[in-house]
Every structure is written in structure tokens, then in C-alpha cells.
UniProtKB/TrEMBL annotation:
Residue span of region Disordered: 1-24
Annotated Pfam families: FCD, GntR
Keywords per UniProt: DNA-binding, Transcription, Transcription regulation
Species lineage: Bacteria, Bacillati, Actinomycetota, Actinomycetes, Mycobacteriales
Native source organism of the sequence: Mycolicibacterium grossiae
UniProt domain HTH gntR-type: residue ranges: 27-97
Protein name: GntR family transcriptional regulator
């Protein structure tokens, strides 16, 4: 369904000259158009699934040529903010991206920086316990019900399943996402794929999960759920930190210096 959305006014370039320096390059017209449309998405004037107005309307509103307008749309397309179906008459459609938009570049940056899996798991240990506290203190019944459903699916899973890393990773990710903190959620989402690959690498190639370890894992998840539903932020945070410390030791023993790229493949 196409929603008619009033267009925002065009914002002209600023002329700025730093003291003692050369003038800053003024943005290209296409960049200004893209910036205005981008701001409309951020402000909610354009939502997921909305189509941009047709080319004629956009050209008239911004006072630009068709090549300039198409360049602006290509900028938004490269940012994964719009989806353009070539040959379609419907035009560009808004697609609000998720954390996956930065997951691949982040993985590359981690590789280039020489980051190890130990770095990654240490970072997660700084994110997830705080998220568990926030979730305990302000989480909804619906959020806890969702985690219980994920836990039930995990209980029914085969400890030797190749999907165990993915299932446990999803539980961890949703703990953060359901905490309500957007920044923590984006960072966790960014690291999620890399973490799952490493966990699968360990489970499948080095140390398959034993029945005893699986039982301990489920027990730990259930204890977290008890603290979350009780609204006990202190105990939820402390328990999840201890859980992550134990998991990190299990996943890193003998692999402490493995670089991220060895797992990303």
C-alpha cells in the first residue's frame, strides 16, 4: 500500500570555512536530497514498506534533474534504507535495516584489527549482564513468555544438533533486545553472527556438548528466567555474568588466541 507522505523542505548547503583552513566542500545536490529523505525515515515520516513519491513529484519538489534524483536514491539504496526493483513502476520502497547492516563490516574491522574470539566474548560479557538487569527491572510479561518459548525449544533440542549454537545464540540475543536498550541491542545484534559461528566451531569441531553440560546449561537459563520474572535485577545481572564467565572458559580453553577470521571462514 502506498502512503501519501508530505515531503520535507529541501535544506540548502552551509558554507563553512574553518579558521585558518580551506573551505569545507559543500555537499552535492544528490547528497542533500538523500539527506532530506533519510531524515524523513529517521523521523518516522516514511516508515517500513512505504514507497517514495514518484520521480516526477520528487523532481518538482526538490527542483532537481532525473539523474540527480536517481543518484540520491542510489545513495539510500547503498545504505540499505530503500529497495529498488528495477523495471518496476512502483519505485523505491523504504526498508528499515536491522543490526545485520553493520555485522559484516564489523566482522571485517575485527579481522583487520587482529581481534581474537577472546576479545569478542569479553565484550559480550560486558553487554549481556547489564541487559539482564534492565530486562528484570522493566521487562514485560510478553518478553518473558517469548524467552520461555525459546527455552522450551532449546530443552527439546538434541545436544548434538548442529543448530545448538544458533539456538543458544538466539536466546542470548533476545535477552539483550528485549531489555529495551536500543544501543545494547544494536551492538549485540552486530556481534551475534560472529559469536554463533565461533560457538558452532567449538561445538562441532572441538568439544561437542555433553549431556551433563547441556543439563547445566538449561538449569542456568531457567534460573535466569526465575530472576527475570521476579524483577530481581541484582541477581539477574550477577547470575548472567557468572554464566557468561563459565561459558567463556568452556569456549576458549585451548583456543584463547584464535583470531576472528579463522572462524568467519
Amino acid at each position: 500500500m502506498v502512503r501519501n507522505t508530505p515531503l520535507a523542505p529541501m535544506i540548502g548547503p552551509d558554507s563553512v570555512t574553518p579558521l585558518g583552513g580551506s573551505p569545507i566542500r559543500s555537499p552535492k545536490t544528490a547528497e542533500l536530497v538523500a539527506g532530506t529523505l533519510r531524515r524523513m525515515v529517521v523521523d518516522g515520516q516514511l516508515s517500513e514498506g512505504d514507497f517514495l513519491p514518484n520521480e516526477a513529484e520528487l523532481m518538482a519538489h526538490f527542483g532537481v534533474s532525473r539523474p540527480t534524483l536517481r543518484e540520491a536514491v542510489r545513495v539510500l539504496e547503498s545504505e540499505r534504507l530503500v529497495e529498488v526493483r528495477r523495471g518496476s513502476r512502483t519505485g523505491a520502497r523504504v526498508r528499515v535495516p536491522g543490526p545485520e547492516i553493520v555485522a559484516r563490516p564489523a566482522g571485517l574491522l575485527l579481522e583487520l584489527s587482529g581481534a581474537t574470539i577472546a576479545d569478542l566474548l569479553t565484550a559480550k560479557a560486558g553487554i549481556e549482564p547489564l541487559a539482564a538487569r534492565l530486562l528484570a527491572e522493566s521487562g514485560s510479561a510478553e518478553a518473558f513468555d517469548e524467552l520461555d518459548r525459546l527455552l522450551a525449544e532449546l530443552v527439546a533440542a538434541d545436544p548434538q544438533s548442529s543448530r545448538l549454537a544458533e539456538s543458544t545464540g538466539l536466546f542470548h540475543l533476545r535477552v539483550v533486545q528485549l531489555s529495551g536498550n536500543a544501543t545494547l541491542s544494536i551492538v549485540a545484534g552486530m556481534l551475534h553472527e560472529i559469536t554463533v559461528r565461533h560457538t558452532a566451531f567449538v561445538f562441532n569441531a572441538h568439544r561437542p556438548v555433553s549431556k551433563a553440560d547441556f543439563v547445566k546449561l538449561i538449569r542456568s537459563y531457567r534460573k535466569l528466567m526465575q530472576f527475570l520474572r521476579a524483577g530481581d535485577g541484582d541477581r539477574a545481572e550477577a547470575h548472567w555474568r557468572k554464566h557468561l564467565d563459565v561459558s567463556r572458559e568452556l569456549l576458549l580453553t585451548g583456543l584463547e588466541s584464535v583470531p576472528v577470521r579463522d572462524v568467519m571462514g
